[in-house]
Amino acid sequence: MKKAIVLLSGGLDSSTTLYHAKSRGYDCRALIFEYGQKHSRELKSAAAIARLTKTPYRIMKIKLPWGGSALISKRRQCALSPFVGKKGIPPTYVPARNTIFISFALSYAEAIGADAIFIGANAIDYSGYPDCRPEYYKALQVLIKKGLRDRHIKIVTPLIKMTKAQIIKLARKLDVPLEITWSCYKGGKKPCGTCDSCRLRDKGFAEAGLTNI
After folding, report:
1. d(Cα 185, Cα 70) in Å, to the nearest integer?
2. Which of these, 44, 60, 65, 82, lies nearest to 5 by C-alpha position?
3. CATH number for 156
4. Residue 25: which residues within 8 A CB-CB, separation 6 or more?
5. How far apart are the C-alpha atoms of 35 and 103, rounded to whole Å?
6. Has residue 37 been placed in a domain?
7. Taking the CA of residue 26 as centre, how many other CA atoms within 13 Å lie in the half-sphere pointing to its CB?
8. CA nearest 33: which of 53, 50, 21, 19?
9. Is residue 212 part of a domain?
10. At residue 14, does pLDDT exceed 60?
């Protein structure tokens, strides 16, 4: 059976990606990162999704002590007004986050002989992060061919050209437990409803003709 590493954050996109990879017949391993987020709510969702799907998972604890993002810096706050649709890169961008995560995933993939790395990156309904664009993942594929022993490993981004509504419809088709997923940049018992991630999730459900859960 084909093996895959799935980057799992506990959000809508990454959870749907895990279910998608499994539906394609992959024997999956999930990587969950604790990288200094201001809250651990998403980690609980990620672990719950992994357990529900009987997917072995690892929680990698890493430090980014230099900050550089509203998601990890105590001195910066996540903006309450949405950044979606504005030009530039929002303050919630974490410098080189996907590059760091994928580097761990590549090492893991080589070590266990995995064929692919799945990541739920999206470049349609997103906040404008540079490491979510198709050209970024094409460049990574070139890097794999130049710098890894197992040059056959593929970076798979099944959601990258889908709208949030399309992702939600796919999630429903795959029976993803959307009520368990967590998209909000803030912790707490309920999503804030005002951050970029909450607004994009609300937009997706509305366009899909469904009630956000």
Report:
1. 9
2. 60
3. 3.40.50.620
4. 1, 2
5. 14
6. yes
7. 25
8. 50
9. no
10. yes
Q: At 142, is the secondary structure helix, strand, or coil?
A: helix
Q: Which two tokens stand for residue 19?
A: 């279910």
pTM of the predicted structure, to 2 decimals: 0.92
In whole angstroms, give the CA distance from residue 175 to residue 207: 19
- Tally of structural domains, the chain: 1
Token couple for 177: 């437990």
The three-class DSSP label of residue 32 is strand
pLDDT digits (tens, 9 = 90+) for 112-166: 999 999 999 999 877 788 888 999 999 999 999 888 887 899 999 999 999 999 9
Instruction: Return d(Cα 60, Cα 62) in angstroms, integer.
Output: 6
Report yes or no on 20 lying in a domain: yes
Strand partners, 57: 30
User: At what angle are helices 12-23 and 164-173 packed, to 10 degrees?
Assistant: 50
Residue 126's domain spans which residues? Answer: 3-207
Q: 96 lies in a domain?
A: yes
Per-residue tokens: 88: 């530039």
What are the beta bridge partners of residue 3?
27
**Can you tell me which residue has the tokens 């998403």?**
42
Contact 177, 49 (CB under 8 A): yes
Decide: 117 and 4 in contact? Cβ < 8 Å. yes
Collapsing DSSP to helix, strand or coil, 176 comes out as coil
Q: Residue 66: what are its φ and ψ, rounded to 5°?
A: -85, -5
User: What does the alpha-carbon distance between residue 126 and residue 192 come to, in Å, rounded to a whole number?
Assistant: 18
d(CA 147, CA 158): 24
